[in-house]
Amino acid sequence: MDQLHLMKVYVAVAEEQGFAAAARRLALSPPAVTRAVAALEENLGVKLLNRTTRFVRTTESGARYLEDARRILGQVQLANEAAAGINADPAGNLVVTAPVMFGQMFVMPGIVDYLQRYPKTQVDAVFLDRVVNMLEEGVDVGIRIGELPDSTMRAIKVGSVRRILVASPDYLKRHGIVQSPDALHEHSLISSSAGKLVQEWRFDRPAKVGIAKDSSLMVRIQPRLTVTTNDAAIKAACAGFGIARLLSYQVSEQLAKGELKILLEHFEPTAMPVQIVHREGRLASVKVRAFIDLMSQRLQSNKSLN
């Protein structure tokens, strides 16, 4: 029998935990399903399933083979979709995630562009200030800031952002320029709890003889104002209340207008990458490839990120 057919039948039996249920799922007769699994076990020389009158369970070898079979069948399906869809327009539902402000500022315009170009698509935009588990939450594409801990994801770097301290010219005129991170204790600090509340701000010491650039300095902060959104922190800083710690893209407009100034630039931590991540490999579906191509071009050409 065809190897892929045997694998498909085995996966159905293992997932349905029964031969009759697998037969119904595949529109085959129960004897045909039984013969296929027996043939696969004979070809492999390994027992894949434990059978009783009440249930069917995978053996230890069967469980490992099940994972491999699912992966191989998935790759075959993607290859078929890619070949059939070379000249097809993107269609179907796409789930996209990004941090809240980044999503509002950069991703949403790209989503609108995508939807206008491809009228057969629909998009669910999930903007959250937390790392979304893309596999568990059914997300197709994510835009993430920072290094990726999950090596199973495919990633495309499209820019970088810096973690910076900012204050208004009016505040600096009244309270003076901050010369070192230690001097922050003498100032009014604004902290945003978007994503997670950070009690310490990390800085990198400037390169000097005998001191590496990546030598870190941690400053425990006591903010006078804590807000739940980055937007609120920006407004408070622009109003002259104090010093806020934000990502460079979040205040690019205010910096360009002179409403905010950067402080302690020489102490900034290393810039963080902005990456488009997705679960699919090189044979990504047409709708995913089209969105990634469009968003990559938009983000890579944005001066706030490059």
Structure notes:
The chain is an alpha/beta fold and 306 residues long. The protein has 3 domains: 3-84, Winged helix-like DNA-binding domain superfamily/Winged helix DNA-binding domain (Arc Repressor Mutant, subunit A, Orthogonal Bundle), CATH 1.10.10.10; 92-162 and 272-300, Periplasmic binding protein-like II (D-Maltodextrin-Binding Protein, domain 2); 163-267, D-Maltodextrin-Binding Protein, domain 2. It is built from 9 helices and 14 strands. A 5-stranded mixed sheet has the order 4-3-5-14-6, with helices on one face. Strand 3, helix 5 (100-117) and strand 4 form a beta-alpha-beta unit. Helix 1 (3-16) packs across helix 2 (19-26). The longest helix has 25 residues, at 60-84. The radius of gyration is 27 Å and the shape is elongated.
Count of spatially separate domains? 3
Low-confidence runs (pLDDT<50, min 5 residues)?
none
Cα end-to-end separation? 55 Å
Order of helices and strands: HHHEEHEHEEEEHEEEEHEHEEH
Query: How much beta, percentage-wise?
Result: 15-25%
Strand order of the largest sheet: 4-3-5-14-6
Biggest sheet features: 5 strands, mixed
Shape: elongated
What is the gist of this entry?
This protein is α/β, with parallel strands linked by helices and 306 residues long.
